[in-house]
């Protein structure tokens, strides 16, 4: 039915069907965020020999995040007098919207996917860059010293790590010859790109953690020095949207890593009888777990180390990887 | 014609994602407005500065380093704009384009080394 829809002329009816399906995905993502936060707290708890949330919703704290969201919803909204009010209200929107927009191009399985556009990977990287604007807007509009410092740091960090992120996937594009994520997955049938592009994977993963503003790269919201970074002045649901954007990005980035490097819905050899959706979910959860593991394991790095690592290590390595891949491709073509 | 419809429909999906992305904060904040209390108090609306009274405007001059990084970012981001199409069309362009790209990237790397030597990449 969907096939027929996609190949017939676009009408309002089409738009409403897509809209309904998008709302469905929105609820899936919100459900994911709810339980990702819980999972993060639980895993962190176990790794630090604590229990983690265990009061609301039974022994596993299953309703803890729901209770937190409800609490945020009934918090009073305070906008400081000194703040730039229109920008202050606009900033969470600018930060959140691209986080949801990037999900449009992720192919979850060969059947369950939304937009199948030719420039998929480029779209993801271009749209996710907009969030930086939201962060800087929030810091600037708050008119707070901590917020402004956090925002400037966040912007410097995000743009510095975007370069290695963008450059590392060029190796993958070289091998595939396409930016379409479906083509990228199908090209991995004889070996996932984590095997063909190990350097790209490592660079991409580190840069992805930095882009997500997670530990060890969470300088933008370093609690011990900047209180909360760029959203110090935000309260209630406006604050919640920054958090939501962060976790939706975590969803999107893990899905992207799964698709680009871990073969998406493709099964391991001899295990093809397990459906693709299960494979995608498994790989996706491994990446999420890795991100949480990072958070518990690593201490926050210093601002100077952060910038120098990005420009002096990751960028040259990413550039070298592009030409290494091109030479490898030429070498394979020779034989 | 079918391809054109496919193209149209896929971007229609992207559009619906944009609309939902904008609508969710608006709807949630609207419902929040109905639920949350409103008890204004002048003290609530002061800028937070760890307990002391805030002084001066916080929008002061910033160190030029941030600007340097922004400039470097622009240079290398434009580079990727050239690298992406090259990577997609690599099969058709072949070895000649590879050497051209090598020269192009080499010149940018010289720029990076220059910035490195000038201590632009050093964060103080």
UniProtKB/TrEMBL annotation, chain A:
Molecular-function annotations in GO: NADH dehydrogenase activity; oxidoreductase activity, acting on NAD(P)H, quinone or similar compound as acceptor; quinone binding
Chain segments annotated as transmembrane: 12-38, 87-109, 121-142, 163-181, 193-210, 247-266, 278-297, 309-328
EC top class, as a word: translocase
Keywords: Cell membrane, Membrane, NAD, Quinone, Translocase, Transmembrane, Transmembrane helix, Ubiquinone
Topology versus the membrane: Multi-pass membrane protein
An annotated GO cellular component: plasma membrane
Catalytic activity: a quinone + NADH + 5 H(+)(in) = a quinol + NAD(+) + 4 H(+)(out)
GO biological process, one term: aerobic respiration
E.C. designation(s): 7.1.1.-
Compartments where located: Cell membrane; Membrane
Protein family (similarity comment): Belongs to the complex I subunit 1 family.
Function: NDH-1 shuttles electrons from NADH, via FMN and iron-sulfur (Fe-S) centers, to quinones in the respiratory chain. The immediate electron acceptor for the enzyme in this species is believed to be ubiquinone. Couples the redox reaction to proton translocation (for every two electrons transferred, four hydrogen ions are translocated across the cytoplasmic membrane), and thus conserves the redox energy in a proton gradient. This subunit may bind ubiquinone.
Assembly and interaction partners: NDH-1 is composed of 14 different subunits. Subunits NuoA, H, J, K, L, M, N constitute the membrane sector of the complex.
Protein name: NADH-quinone oxidoreductase subunit H
Organism: Cytobacillus kochii
UniProtKB/TrEMBL annotation, chain B:
Keywords attached to this entry: Cell membrane, Membrane, NAD, Oxidoreductase, Quinone, Translocase, Transmembrane, Transmembrane helix, Transport, Ubiquinone
GO molecular function, one term: NADH dehydrogenase (quinone) (non-electrogenic) activity
Coiled-coil ranges per UniProt: none
Pfam family membership, one: Oxidored_q4
Compartment(s) of residence: Cell membrane; Membrane
Catalytic activity: a quinone + NADH + 5 H(+)(in) = a quinol + NAD(+) + 4 H(+)(out)
Transmembrane stretches, start-end: 12-31, 66-87, 93-116
Entry membrane topology: Multi-pass membrane protein
Assigned EC number: 7.1.1.-
GO cellular component: NADH dehydrogenase complex; plasma membrane
Enzymatic class: translocase
InterPro entries: NAD(P)H_OxRDtase_bac/plastid, NADH_UbQ/plastoQ_OxRdtase_su3, NDAH_ubi_oxred_su3_sf
Main localization, broad class: membrane
Function: NDH-1 shuttles electrons from NADH, via FMN and iron-sulfur (Fe-S) centers, to quinones in the respiratory chain. The immediate electron acceptor for the enzyme in this species is believed to be a menaquinone. Couples the redox reaction to proton translocation (for every two electrons transferred, four hydrogen ions are translocated across the cytoplasmic membrane), and thus conserves the redox energy in a proton gradient.
UniProt family annotation: Belongs to the complex I subunit 3 family.
Assembly information from the UniProt record: NDH-1 is composed of 14 different subunits. Subunits NuoA, H, J, K, L, M, N constitute the membrane sector of the complex.
Protein's name according to its UniProt entry: NADH-quinone oxidoreductase subunit A
Source organism of this protein record: Cytobacillus kochii
């Amino acid at each position: 039915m969907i096939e027929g829809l996609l190949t017939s002329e676009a009408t309002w009816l089409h738009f409403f069907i897509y809209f309904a399906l998008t709302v469905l995905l929105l609820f899936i993502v919100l459900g994911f965020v709810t339980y990702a936060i819980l999972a993060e707290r639980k895993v962190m708890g176990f790794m630090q020999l604590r229990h983690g949330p265990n009061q609301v919703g039974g022994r596993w704290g299953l309703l803890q995040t729901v209770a937190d969201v409800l609490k945020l919803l009934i918090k009073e909204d305070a906008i400081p007098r000194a703040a730039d009010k229109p920008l202050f209200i606009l900033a969470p929107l600018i930060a959140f919207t691209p986080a949801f927009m990037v999900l449009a191009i992720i192919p979850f399985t060969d059947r369950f996917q939304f937009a199948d556009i030719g420039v998929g990977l480029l779209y993801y990287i271009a749209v996710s860059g907009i969030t930086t604007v939201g962060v800087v807007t929030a810091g600037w509009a708050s008119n707070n010293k901590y917020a402004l410092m956090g925002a400037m740091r966040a912007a410097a960090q995000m743009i510095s790590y975007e370069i290695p992120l963008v450059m590392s996937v060029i190796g993958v594009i070289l091998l595939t010859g396409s930016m379409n994520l479906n083509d990228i997955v199908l090209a991995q049938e004889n070996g996932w790109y984590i095997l063909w592009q190990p350097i790209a994977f490592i660079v991409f993963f580190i840069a992805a953690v930095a882009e997500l503003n997670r530990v060890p790269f969470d300088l933008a919201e370093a609690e011990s020095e900047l209180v909360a970074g760029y959203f110090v002045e935000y309260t209630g649901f406006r604050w919640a949207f920054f958090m939501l954007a962060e976790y939706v990005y975590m969803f999107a980035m893990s899905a992207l890593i799964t698709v680009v490097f871990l073969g998406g819905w493709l099964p391991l050899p001899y295990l093809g009888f397990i459906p693709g959706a299960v494979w995608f979910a498994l790989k996706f959860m491994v990446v999420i777990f890795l991100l949480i593991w990072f958070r518990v394991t690593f201490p926050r790095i210093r601002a100077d180390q952060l910038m120098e690592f990005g420009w002096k290590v990751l960028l040259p390595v990413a550039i070298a990887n592009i030409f290494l891949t091109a030479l490898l491709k030429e070498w394979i073509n020779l034989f | 014609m079918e391809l054109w419809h496919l193209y149209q429909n896929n971007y229609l999906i992207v559009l619906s994602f944009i609309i939902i992305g904008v609508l969710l904060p608006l709807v949630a904040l609207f419902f929040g407005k109905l639920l949350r209390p409103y008890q204004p108090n002048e003290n609530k609306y002061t800028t937070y500065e760890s307990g002391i009274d805030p002084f001066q405007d916080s929008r002061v001059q910033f160190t030029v380093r941030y600007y340097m990084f922004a400039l470097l970012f622009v240079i290398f981001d434009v580079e990727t704009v050239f690298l992406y199409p090259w990577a997609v069309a690599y099969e058709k362009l072949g070895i000649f384009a590879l050497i051209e790209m090598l020269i192009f990237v080499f010149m940018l790397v010289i720029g990076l080394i220059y910035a490195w030597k000038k201590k632009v990449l050093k964060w103080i």
